[in-house]
Write a structure and sequence with these properties.
Elements: H1 2-25, E1 43-48, H2 56-71, E2 76-81, H3 89-98, E3 103-104, H4 130-138, H5 140-148, E4 154-164, E5 166-169, E6 184-187, H6 191-199, E7 203-206, H7 212-217, E8 223-226, H8 228-233, E9 242-245, E10 250-258, H9 259-264, H10 267-301, E11 305-308, H11 311-320, H12 322-332, H13 334-348
Bound molecules: D-xylonic acid.
D-xylonic acid binds at residues 49-51, 89, 106-107, 162, 188, 209, 226, 230, 251.
């Protein structure tokens, strides 16, 4: 793993040098070339994600790429990298801040290391439906969070959808919090997740996504939690026996661009990139919801026991994690959390 990281760093540095050399020899944007022709600068967007190329997120990136390359008449090239080829979520966000990578699309959870207000998304049982969740993120409070990223060197282009997270493990069928006792669960690198898995009596271990499959295979952890498309498409049925549809957290993805890169883009290309982010978002959400519906059966067909909770059991999970909500309300800012809850309430009653 260490070697891999070194390699990634070396590759990033090399590509930075190549990019710099490329920039200095190219005529600056729109300038008259020597032959008197107007040459335009070319831009390369490297977009990296942790998930594999079967996931709706990658399909979304393909749409993002197609739109940008077509609308920019080839002035922008978009290169896609899946399966943590460019690093994990936190490493890629850092690369964006440095300007050595242009785009990534993490779950909101690791962004809390940059701005803890993103912790609101990690509060258990917050959004009643996917529609309320996407209305919320697309609304003024969601936008405010994206705007706040600028001072951290990131441009939040749009929210895509990861979806409701569910528990898998290979020890026993989980129906109540009681069944969680002692299970070693990989969580995202996020304080709220750690806290509520502890509240449930589990033994949570934060870990980058790219290390998860092997950790389950080798028994380093008993289980993990992710939305249905991820569980299915990352082949977790090969290493996990039980899925419980807990739906404990709704995860948005946040499509991020390096601010250094964004600031260097001419306005017409910025507009194309922003438009592409929205068009791809709508399609990514549609595919994600379609897969979520279809693939629960896929998990059964792949040999997993898939357990749906009764409303009473769901309630037990909610009660067992309510201490986390109380605790992090203060950590995030009580007034802000109240404002968020009121907005979700309003959207739910529409
Ligand atoms: C992919 C991650 C992943 C997330 C996780 O890079 O870490 O479990 O759900 O999808 O962002």
């Amino acid at each position: 793993m260490k070697k891999m990281k070194k390699l990634v760093v070396v590759m990033l540095v090399l590509s930075l040098i190549v990019a710099m050399v490329g920039c200095s020899s190219a005529p600056s944007n729109g300038e008259q070339g020597e032959a008197g022709s107007v040459e335009q600068e070319k831009y390369v967007i490297r977009a990296g994600i942790g998930l594999n190329d079967q996931h709706p997120q990658y399909k979304g990136l393909e749409i993002f790429k197609e739109y940008i390359e077509r609308e920019s008449d080839g002035r922008v090239e978009v290169q896609l990298f899946h399966s943590s080829q460019l690093g994990d979520d936190i490493q890629m966000m850092e690369a964006l801040q440095l300007g050595s990578q242009e785009v990534t699309c993490p779950s909101s959870a690791p962004i809390t290391s940059i701005d803890k207000r993103f912790m609101i998304f990690d509060l258990p049982f917050l959004f009643p439906t996917e529609e309320v969740a996407s209305d919320f993120v697309d609304g003024p409070l969601g936008q405010e969070l994206l705007d706040g990223l600028e001072e951290h060197g990131l441009v939040g282009l749009a929210y895509w959808e990861n979806g409701y997270r569910h528990l898998t493990n290979n020890v026993r069928e989980v129906k109540t919090p009681e069944d969680m006792k002692g299970l070693k669960i990989r969580t995202m690198e996020n304080q709220v997740h750690l806290d509520f898995f502890r509240a449930l009596g589990a033994n949570p271990t934060p870990m980058p996504f790219g290390e998860l499959f092997t950790a389950m295979q080798q028994g380093v952890v008993d289980g993990q939690e992710n939305p249905v498309p991820t569980i299915y498409l990352q082949n977790y049925p090969e290493v996990q026996k039980y899925t419980t549809l807990t739906g404990h957290v709704y995860s948005p993805f946040v499509l991020l661009m390096s601010k250094v890169f964004w600031d260097g883009l001419p306005a017409d290309l910025q507009e194309i990139v922003q438009e592409a982010a929205f068009i791809a978002r709508d399609e990514e959400r549609r595919i994600s919801r379609e897969y979520t519906e279809e693939l629960a059966d896929g998990l059964r067909e792949a040999g997993m026991t898939v357990t749906e909770l009764t409303p009473e059991q769901q309630q037990m999970f909610q009660e067992a994690t309510s201490s986390t909500v109380e605790k992090f309300k203060n950590e995030i800012g009580a007034d802000y959390v109240e404002q968020v809850l009121a907005e979700i309430e309003r959207l739910s009653n529409r």
